[in-house]
Amino acid sequence: MTRVLSWLLSALAIGAFGFLLCVFLFQSGPVWQSEGTRYITGVSWFYRQDVFGALSLIYGSLAVTAVALLLAGPLGLGAAVFLSEYLPQKARLALKIPLELLAGIPSVVFGLLGIALLRDWVYRTFAKFDPLSGDTLLTAGILLAVMILPTMVSLCDDALRSVSGAQRQAARALGLTRAETIWNIVLPQASRGIASAFLLSVGRALGETVAVFLVIGRQDNNLPHPWYSPAPLLEAGQTLTTKLGGAETNIAFGDPLHWAAIMGLGVLLLVLTAGATCLGTLGRRRHA
Amino acid sequence: MFENIPCKNIVLETLNLEVQVRERTILQNISLQVASGEILGIIGPSGAGKSTLLRCFNRLSELTPGLRVRGEVRLMGSSIYAPELDVNVLRARVGMLFQEPVVFPVDIRENVLFGARRLRKLSKGEQDELVESKLREVALWEEVRDRLKQPAAKLSVGQQQRLCLARTLAVRPEVLLMDEPTSALDPRSTSAIEELLLEMKSRHSIVLVTHNLRQARQISDRVAVVCLRNGVGQIVEQGESAAVFNAPSAPEFRDYLGQASGM
Q1: pTM of the model
Q2: Does pLDDT of A147 surpass 80?
Q3: Would B120 be classed as within a structural domain?
């Protein structure tokens, strides 16, 4: 019974997602016909000329997510190790509850904080690189890092706690120090869970809109030259989500090709976030 | 109650040990001695604090929050609670085997080397030698020699427990603490472990906590009986195994024996 039900429910969930994807694919049909693969590899997006290349948006999303992960990953994992392995149980719980509350703060609030505090800080700190303003991909990445940090800590902490106490005790009884036990026993056994914490955070970062929208500058067609140059990080940019959240979406609705291009961004976003979340969830389930 | 063991080297001894959890005393007045080359059995009803007592001997008790230990524990004559003592070195000198075998999720060979490798630098040849000699010592070599690279978790529970013993022996402990090491095992694996203990006791002193009275009687040289008296765990009787079992004097111990045989 439970088996049948759980199959039914997961089929329903997959069906709903498939339906959503189909709607987006169908509506984005014209742009795939007109642009083909250039839609993904094309470097410029000028809707008045009917040129739709989403590469700079994909780049923006990935760059912002990478910055967020690079900052929040080590910090989150470190905090989780401290929480799970060093703090007494009571203090751990006392910290974990507000941490999970923090994860529930509306993202627009983070966006406002980003404008109030982070933008100027980035501008001043990187003054010698002469940025045009504090609205940059880096600013958005840092803000996202702050936003995904609580989730990161919480999920990593869960992963570490899922390693049995008997393993820690056996290692300590062999004379390993606490740090050695963490390094040799706990982290390797929690690695699957930690990986899924990273992936779920990636899913969250890719999908985040409002906060990023407020501090990224929303500059189209910004790509690095050469491709590995970090320069665009200190320039304004655009991500898939900030493009979709902007005014252009409303303008597009009247024009079938333009609308198809916008819906195409939705397809890309869905595929990216769903991919990261699915991989993360799979790892988590197998880990547990 | 205090019994001296003449003409033998005392390896481990406790003097008036007292253990508290928060404000509650759970063990008190614990004085016992373990001589070199002997097995000391610790028996008594569940909940009397036997396992907690055992964890005081390698200070693993410190990993349990809220536990406080007072009194003295000496290893080779010097206090294990001395401030200058490195507790991790102590734990390598006093090995421990748990009720359920705890193998690490790596291969068999790595399991044996796990603790040893961090204590001393070992060349590849020395590692091979150590793995073979320790696995032979626990009578596991013939069974696993062809699959040293396989995950240890694939072994049977009895084999896993012997592997854990090999891993503990590889750090060359002076004393072995055993917390009901056979209670999760089938009779054949149990007797395999018992034979090993008898064989090993000339090299390592052994403290064996057990619920199995037959085991305590057959393989321990002396026993200490830990029972609740006025709600606090204490040693109500200790001495040569045969003497203690043949003429139990403490009423708590007699009750326990009665219950155990009535079961």
Answers
A1: 0.84
A2: yes
A3: no
